[in-house]
Amino acid sequence: MTHDQKQTVVITGISCLTGGGNLTQSWQNLLQEKSNISLQQPFFSFPPVPLSLIGEKPSSLATLTTEIVNDAIADASLLPPLANCGVVVGSSRGCQGQIEQWAQQKDQSVNWLDILPNQAAVTAAKIVGSRGIVLSPMAACSTGICSIAQGYDLIQGRQCEQVIAGAVETPITPLTLAGFEKMGAMAKTGCYPFDQQREGLVLGEGGAIFVLESLKAATARNAFIYGEILGYGLTCDAYHVSAPDPNFRCGRLAVKQCLKKSRLCAADVNYIHAHSTSTKLNDEREAQLIQSLFPFSVAVSSTKGVTGHTLGASSAIGVAFALMSLREQILPPCVGLKQSAFNLNLVRKATSHQINYALVLSFGFGGQNSAMIVGRLDHKM
């Protein structure tokens, strides 16, 4: 069966924005182990905490989405309007910051239709001029992969030839800070993925948006191709509102589904972009999952030591970094790691390495588990 018959889905445009800058800047910061995390006090009612902000104050969802979507379209050399283009852009927190302000100030000038959870998708659809399918997934920290997976399915099912997909998050709000602090999940000094001294998550803002196309459509317009989406896996523990299932059965199932759809075995994967939030429980469970399914030789790293934890956008940013790894054949380091707490092949320094297949993992509240594999198209052709 040929690529066209299988409706191969490729990525022809990427835009990523984190506290470290755009995709190129964030990638270089990652390779040079430069973190954008610092002590910040965006709200006077809260003491300073380590955060990763894009600007001097927390961003708004619409502003961030507009910038990222416009850059993704430009990167793919597309010009709006794209009437038949699908849109799948998610956010786990949506316009929570604006809602909190509205609730406090009782500002009647605010149109509640403009602060619904689907604002990122609506904003993206308006920018691209889409009259096609518009979806707004919300799956906690797995939102990014969930969004890209739905875009992949739209193309696989021949409902669209092009889809704008990804996730954007602006989670730094008083309620979010208070919630994570109450849970005891917030770090005091910084983000240290998989480290023995890890102390909790560090919130960050940002997002990543991709232009997905069928290989046929991309080839027809001679588009540059970053890589191919080979498969994904999505499961839910339904175990606890915030804690992962101790045996991680559904987490392993998501990875196995992903490998099966990708027609790969565990040994084929060269690099794992781990979710690793730098919390005691998540890192331990994820390390056990990786150890139970993959050989020790598979390289592993988390990039949250540079970007912070962008919640729903984190796995989309992970896919962006995985594609950069494929493109440049470089394993990115696990920034913030000093002394490993686990028997994993953790990347300490940026390292040149042959990478054909990269796996991105994400695990969110409510037991949301997701996995996605991206690969080099030229490796298969």
Structural class: alpha/beta
Query: In percent, how helical is the residue content?
Result: 25-40%
Series of secondary-structure elements, N-terminal to C-terminal = HEEHEEHEHHEHEHEHEHEHEHHEEEEH
CATH superfamily of the largest domain: Thiolase/Chalcone synthase
CATH class of the largest domain: Alpha Beta
* Overall outline: globular
Alpha-carbon Rg, integer: 19 Å
Q: Beta fraction of the residues? A: 15-25%
Count of spatially separate domains: 2
By CATH, the architecture of the largest domain is named 3-Layer(aba) Sandwich
CATH topology of the largest domain: Peroxisomal Thiolase, Chain A, domain 1
**What are the segments in which pLDDT stays under 50 over at least 5 consecutive residues?**
none
The total count of helices amounts to: 13
Number of strands: 15
What separation lies between the terminal Cα atoms?
A: 13 Å
Note the main sheet: 11 strands, mixed
Compute the average pLDDT. Answer: 94
Could you describe the 3D structure shown?
This protein has 381 residues and is an alpha/beta fold. The protein has 2 domains: 9-220, Peroxisomal Thiolase, Chain A, domain 1 (3-Layer(aba) Sandwich); 229-380, Peroxisomal Thiolase, Chain A, domain 1, CATH 3.40.47.10. It has 13 helices and 15 strands. The protein has helices spanning 3-6, 23-31, 61-75, 96-105, 119-128, 143-156, 174-183, 215-220, 249-262, 280-293, 304-307, 314-328, 377-380, and strands at residues 9-18, 21-22, 38-40, 49-51, 86-90, 134-135, 162-169, 206-214, 227-236, 271-273, 299-301, 330-331, 351-352, 357-364, 368-375. The strands form 3 sheets. Strands 1, 2, 5, 6, 7, 8, 9, 10, 11, 14 and 15 form an 11-stranded mixed β-sheet that branches. Strands 3-4 form a two-stranded antiparallel sheet. Strand 10, helix 10 (280-293) and strand 11 (299-301) form a beta-alpha-beta unit. The model has no long low-confidence stretch (mean pLDDT 94).
